[in-house]
């Protein structure tokens, strides 16, 4: 407890002058104090506003945030949060051309000379698309952000610029495309969030799936193959869409609770339904010919 009180004092009196040391002390205490203490310490240590840069703890995924002019990568586990929560603090970068500080993460353009910047190495798709690190993404806002970025970053706008600017434009534009497509659909968004949390779907995930569920999937596929009319195919498609919407709500609830393993099981089920949805589209396409 004495060590905890000492660190709290350090947070208020010396945090601004020696933040790197503070984070190092916090990491050491993490190994000897209960996790609830560590959470309290970090709640204190990560709420400073240094040089206009507000520092907050991310709820999920890898975050890149400003904390003065130093750099530290720090992994923290909170007892009542997600099973894997990453908090990455990155130094304020500078423009490759004029040297002006870049206050945003990721920074697409220099605020001083307005030249395009290199992609932020540690920025994740949620950072790029400026949306909450949540499974419940506002898709309309996501689309607006995508259109705005593509208008600004499209390579056609940089055809008369320097070679470096053209290269950065191509990389940034492709990265925005990938981020948008990944976060737009629930399945790819969920898989990405699992990846950020260090959870991956192994090959042959159907082996661990519920036998009753697998039997249901087989029956739906057989019924789809035997359908003769568009009405029947559309009926199957509507039914599957309802199941996907139900799974989406359950997956969102699992992520909010930090239960990545439950989210993983539900996402595996969603993969099967997404596969059937693709087959429905193909079947309707053939019938339309």
Automatic annotation (TrEMBL):
<keyword id="KW-0963">Cytoplasm</keyword>
<comment type="pathway">
    <text>Cofactor biosynthesis; iron-sulfur cluster biosynthesis.</text>
</comment>
<dbReference type="InterPro" id="IPR009073">
    <property type="entry name" value="HscB_oligo_C"/>
</dbReference>
<dbReference type="InterPro" id="IPR004640">
    <property type="entry name" value="HscB"/>
</dbReference>
<dbReference type="GO" id="GO:0044571">
    <property type="term" value="P:[2Fe-2S] cluster assembly"/>
</dbReference>
<comment type="similarity">
    <text>Belongs to the HscB family.</text>
</comment>
<keyword id="KW-0143">Chaperone</keyword>
<comment type="function">
    <text>Acts as a co-chaperone in iron-sulfur cluster assembly in the cytoplasm. Also mediates complex formation between components of the cytosolic iron-sulfur biogenesis pathway and the CIA targeting complex composed of CIAO1, DIPK1B/FAM69B and MMS19 by binding directly to the scaffold protein ISCU and to CIAO1. This facilitates iron-sulfur cluster insertion into a number of cytoplasmic and nuclear proteins including POLD1, ELP3, DPYD and PPAT.</text>
</comment>
<dbReference type="InterPro" id="IPR036386">
    <property type="entry name" value="HscB_C_sf"/>
</dbReference>
<dbReference type="InterPro" id="IPR001623">
    <property type="entry name" value="DnaJ_domain"/>
</dbReference>
<dbReference type="GO" id="GO:0005739">
    <property type="term" value="C:mitochondrion"/>
</dbReference>
<dbReference type="GO" id="GO:0051259">
    <property type="term" value="P:protein complex oligomerization"/>
</dbReference>
<protein>
    <recommendedName>
        <fullName>Iron-sulfur cluster co-chaperone protein HscB</fullName>
    </recommendedName>
</protein>
<dbReference type="Pfam" id="PF07743">
    <property type="entry name" value="HSCB_C"/>
</dbReference>
<dbReference type="GO" id="GO:0001671">
    <property type="term" value="F:ATPase activator activity"/>
</dbReference>
<keyword id="KW-0496">Mitochondrion</keyword>
<dbReference type="InterPro" id="IPR036869">
    <property type="entry name" value="J_dom_sf"/>
</dbReference>
<keyword id="KW-0479">Metal-binding</keyword>
<comment type="subunit">
    <text>Interacts with ISCU and HSPA9 to form an iron-sulfur transfer complex. Interacts with SDHAF1 (via the first LYR motif); the interaction recruits the iron-sulfur transfer complex composed of HSC20, HSPA9 and ISCU and mediates the incorporation of iron-sulfur clusters into SDHB which also interacts with HSC20. Interacts with the cytoplasmic form of ISCU and with CIA complex member CIAO1 (via LYR motif).</text>
</comment>
<dbReference type="GO" id="GO:0046872">
    <property type="term" value="F:metal ion binding"/>
</dbReference>
<comment type="function">
    <text>Acts as a co-chaperone in iron-sulfur cluster assembly in mitochondria. Required for incorporation of iron-sulfur clusters into SDHB, the iron-sulfur protein subunit of succinate dehydrogenase that is involved in complex II of the mitochondrial electron transport chain. Recruited to SDHB by interaction with SDHAF1 which first binds SDHB and then recruits the iron-sulfur transfer complex formed by HSC20, HSPA9 and ISCU through direct binding to HSC20. Plays an essential role in hematopoiesis.</text>
</comment>
<feature type="domain" description="J">
    <location>
        <begin position="124"/>
        <end position="196"/>
    </location>
</feature>
<comment type="subunit">
    <text>Homodimer. Interacts with ISCU (cytoplasmic form); this interaction stabilizes the (Fe-S) clusters on ISCU. Interacts with the CIA complex member CIAO1 (via LYR motif).</text>
</comment>
<dbReference type="GO" id="GO:0051087">
    <property type="term" value="F:protein-folding chaperone binding"/>
</dbReference>
């Amino acid at each position: 407890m004495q060590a905890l009180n000492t660190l709290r004092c350090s947070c208020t009196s010396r945090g601004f002058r020696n933040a790197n040391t503070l984070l190092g002390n916090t990491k050491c205490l993490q190994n000897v104090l209960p996790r609830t203490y560590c959470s309290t310490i970090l709640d204190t240590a990560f709420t400073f506003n240094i040089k206009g840069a507000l520092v907050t703890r991310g709820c999920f995924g890898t975050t890149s945030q400003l904390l003065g002019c130093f750099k530290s990568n720090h992994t923290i586990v909170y007892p009542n949060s997600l099973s894997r929560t990453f908090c990455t603090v990155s130094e304020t970068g500078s423009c490759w051309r004029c040297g002006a500080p870049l206050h945003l993460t990721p920074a697409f353009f220099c605020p001083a000379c307005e030249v395009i910047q290199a992609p932020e190495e540690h920025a994740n798709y949620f950072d790029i698309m400026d949306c909450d690190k949540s499974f419940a993404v506002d898709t309309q806002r996501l689309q607006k952000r995508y259109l705005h970025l593509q208008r600004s970053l499209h390579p056609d706008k940089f055809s008369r610029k320097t070679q470096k600017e053209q290269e950065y434009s191509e990389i940034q534009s492709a990265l925005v495309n990938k981020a948008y497509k990944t976060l737009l659909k629930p399945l790819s968004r969920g898989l990405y969030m699992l990846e950020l949390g260090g959870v991956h779907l192994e090959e042959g995930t159907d082996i661990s799936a519920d036998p009753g569920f697998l039997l249901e999937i087989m029956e739906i596929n057989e019924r789809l193959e035997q359908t003769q009319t568009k009405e029947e195919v559309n009926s199957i498609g509507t039914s599957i869409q309802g199941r996907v919407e139900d799974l989406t709500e359950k997956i969102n609830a699992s992520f909010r609770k930090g239960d990545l393993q439950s989210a993983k099981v539900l996402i595996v089920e969603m993969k099967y339904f997404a596969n059937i949805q693709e087959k429905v589209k193909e079947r309707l396409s053939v019938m339309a010919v």
